[in-house]
Specification:
This protein is an alpha+beta fold and 305 residues long. It has six helices and 17 strands.
């Protein structure tokens, strides 16, 4: 039987947010107390990322100490410096013989058109998100990396809708699975349970929804408006899996993007999903991947609600 739980029930991971509400940008951090096996799935054409190759099955099998989801486009990658400083101060990192180097993966959304383009997440904001994770009482909505998130931007910000940060977690027997996602999509958002559109491109009079897919097919030339998108997220489980298996689970979680976001994974998106194993529970990879897609779909829905 699958039941909803709080993400804070998953041991070994703590979540914190920091944001600048006026500039409409922020940082969400997932800290792994004992490190985590992390895989990744990148389906968008324009990701802004840091140390993402650490999650590749082709690289060394070292534990990742944090995943950062932030605003600021590529400028926001500076937030990772603050996360590294926080972890180094606490003796967390990969032992090199001369220093412990924290291993931090990060992805960013483009939110420069929502608030102030000249204020972006920096090292201090990344550090503050880690400090907030000490409370481990993560909020959702227009907080953290979702502070400046919007959806339905094909015709510009004036016809878009606000989105944010979504979190959802479940347990099936001894297996726990959670999703954390920042929804900043070019496309429209649909309820995974009934297929009803719940956010996205508005009509010119603002009284209803337009269809992004239909309008996209009518466009003959690329527009600069396309480049301000990306849905980034992470699924976290207490199941014991390898990096390669976590990458497969991340790719299975991607089906939630297709279920809830249309269009999705375009060259104007940087869509990325990390998948982290933070426990030792025995679990089947097919069950874990199926649950990963379910929690991600619900997290996307919560991000726009």
């Amino acid at each position: 039987m699958v039941r909803e739980i709080s993400i804070t029930e998953i041991e070994g991971v703590r979540i914190g947010n920091a944001q600048n509400a006026d500039a409409k940008t922020g940082v969400t951090v997932l800290l792994f107390d004992q490190g985590a096996k992390v895989g990744v799935d990148i389906s968008g054409g324009g990701p802004a990322s840091r140390e993402t190759p650490l999650a590749s099955p082709l690289t060394a099998d070292n534990p990742v100490h944090a995943i950062v989801l932030s605003g600021g486009s590529a400028f926001g990658l500076a937030a990772g410096d603050g996360v590294m400083r926080y972890l180094e101060e606490r003796g967390v990192g990969y032992e090199t013989g001369y220093a412990k180097v924290p291993l931090v993966c990060q992805s960013c959304i483009y939110d420069l058109g929502c608030g102030r383009a000249d204020i972006r997440p920096d090292a201090d904001m990344g550090y503050a998100a880690c400090a907030d994770a000490e409370k481990n009482r993560p909020l959702t909505g227009s907080v953290g990396g979702g502070t400046g998130a919007t959806v339905g931007k094909l015709c510009g910000m004036e016809r878009s809708m606000k989105a944010g940060l979504g979190i959802h977690a479940v347990a099936a027997g001894g297996l726990q699975m959670a999703a954390v996602v920042v929804v900043n999509a070019l496309g429209d958002i649909y309820d995974p349970e009934n297929g009803r559109k719940i956010a996205g491109l508005r009509t010119e009079d603002g009284q209803g929804f337009a269809d992004t897919c239909q309008m996209l097919c009518q466009i003959r030339q690329r527009q600069d408006l396309f480049n301000s998108n990306t849905t980034i997220g992470a699924v976290v489980t207490n199941g014991r899996f390898s990096k390669a298996e976590m990458s497969k689970i991340a790719s299975m979680a991607r089906s939630a993007y297709g279920r809830c976001i249309r269009p999705v994974g375009t060259m104007a998106d940087g869509d990325t999903i990390y998948a982290a194993s933070a426990g030792n529970a025995e679990a089947d990879i097919n069950v874990a991947g199926t649950l990963a897609a379910e929690v991600m779909a619900q997290a996307i829905k919560k991000a726009v609600q």
